[in-house]
Automatic annotation (TrEMBL):
GO BP annotations, alphabetical order: lipid metabolic process
CC cofactor: heme
UniProt-listed SUPFAM superfamilies: Cytochrome P450 (SSF48264)
Origin species: Acorus calamus
Biological classification of the source: Eukaryota, Viridiplantae, Streptophyta, Embryophyta, Tracheophyta
Keyword presence, Transmembrane: yes
Protein name per UniProt: Cytokinin hydroxylase
A Pfam family recorded for this sequence: p450
Protein localization: Membrane
Residues binding heme: C290
Stored InterPro entries: Cyt_P450, Cyt_P450_CS, Cyt_P450_E_grp-I, Cyt_P450_sf, Cytochrome_P450_Monooxygen
Length: 342
């Protein structure tokens, strides 16, 4: 996968290089590029999708997300669909179109895995997954695909986008990471072995996800009445949104430097010195912890390494700080950065 990630990202960086002026610097709103890049990577990594149907499904996901979460958030709120009937109709239509596109991607994969073996013996994995009995139905498989598409690209992309922002603000960390990458790769290309040597980059990723968790809420449902102290009860069946941003910025858990960018707090502790073991939850916790964590760490390191090898980053005067929760935590007015070719 690493070589595919490198290939996809190199194409994006070539676009940035082409935009550079004669002086080698240019301003770019990097967020849409990084999101598109991550979309291409998850499409390749999860589904081997490189066809137009996969891309069309992505574009509709984007539209669905905007329809669901702006300007206010009623998704998951009881009776919310009746308050916003027009929006609900748009979301339903988009949902059906996405289902149709994914189903046809699945069917064409299935045809390929059954048929086009050119002599070699191939295992019909999709057929195995979908066979009756305990297998998944086509409907369930479509739902699994949607979870992966949705969960698997924007989260990682935003971690990278906020990293570029924080490295632009902290040139010393930018320099330290660039040096680490040079040492790990010996000046050559990033590969699966070099990635494992990027210790400081792990601290930086952890600290970025502490300050700007790309998945700002965890969802749970109370399976029984839960008592908080002896006066408050969360009744059985209550849907709960757990506020990761609040916990990651809680002075009582992190100390007085809670709002500062200090990756070294993760040097000796995977929890960054947080005083409660559930106070740091960028990938969730327990039985439903993120299944894509390792993939996202790998992608993050490959993409950030490639960017730092080619560009120096600083903040554009046009940047407006406006993180907003639209299911994920995004820079709602974009991420314009000055990129200087190295
Ligand atoms: C920086 C990147 C990512 C972040 C911050 C992130 C964060 C999260 C969080 C907070 C959860 C909820 C966990 C819980 O409720 O305890 C989650 C679940 C999930 N994530 Fe990620 N994720 C990332 C990348 C990915 C990737 C790359 C994939 C797919 C390849 C992925 C697939 C999933 C899936 C399928 C679930 C649901 C797991 C379940 O309910 O059993 N995520 N993620």
């Amino acid at each position: 996968m690493v070589s595919n990630m490198v290939e996809i990202t190199t194409t994006m960086l070539a676009e940035w290089t082409a935009r550079a002026s004669a002086t080698g610097t240019h301003e770019t709103d990097v967020e849409p590029y990084i999101v598109r890049n991550a979309a291409d990577i998850i499409a390749m990594a999860s589904f081997g999708v490189d066809d137009s149907k996969g891309k069309a499904a992505f574009d509709k996901f984007k539209a669905l997300q905007v329809a669901l979460f702006s300007p206010n958030r009623l998704a998951g709120v009881p009776f919310g669909e009746y308050v916003q009937a027009r929006r609900t109709a748009v979301c339903r239509r988009l949902g059906e179109e996405i289902d149709g596109l994914l189903l046809s991607v699945i069917e064409s994969r299935q045809r390929k895995s059954k048929g086009e073996g050119e002599g070699e013996e191939r295992i019909d994995l999709l057929g195995l997954l979908m066979r009756s009995g305990k297998g998944l139905t086509a409907r369930e498989l479509v739902d699994e695909c949607k979870t992966f598409f949705f969960a698997g690209h924007e989260t990682t992309a935003l971690a990278i986008t906020w990293t570029m922002f924080l490295l632009a603000l902290h040139p010393d960390w930018q320099r330290q990471l660039r040096e680490e990458v040079a040492e790990a790769t010996g000046g050559g290309d990033i590969d699966a072995v070099a990635v494992t040597k990027l210790t400081k980059m792990t601290w930086v990723m952890n600290e970025v996800l502490r300050l700007y968790p790309s998945a700002p809420n965890l969802l749970r449902q109370a399976r029984e009445d839960i008592w908080v102290g002896d006066k408050t009860v969360i009744p059985h069946g209550t849907n709960i949104w757990i506020d990761a941003v609040g916990m990651h910025h809680d002075r009582a858990l992190w100390g007085v430097d809670v709002d500062e960018f200090r990756p070294e707090r993760f040097k000796d502790s995977p929890y960054g010195g947080c005083t409660h073991r559930m106070g740091y939850v960028p990938f969730g916790y327990g039985g439903r912890v993120c299944v894509g964590k390792n993939l996202s760490v790998l992608e993050y390191k490959v993409v950030v390494s490639l960017i730092l090898k080619r560009f120096s980053l600083s903040l554009s005067p046009n940047y407006e700080h406006s993180p907003a929760v639209m299911l994920t935590m995004r820079p709602s007015r974009g991420m314009p950065l000055i990129l200087e070719t190295l």
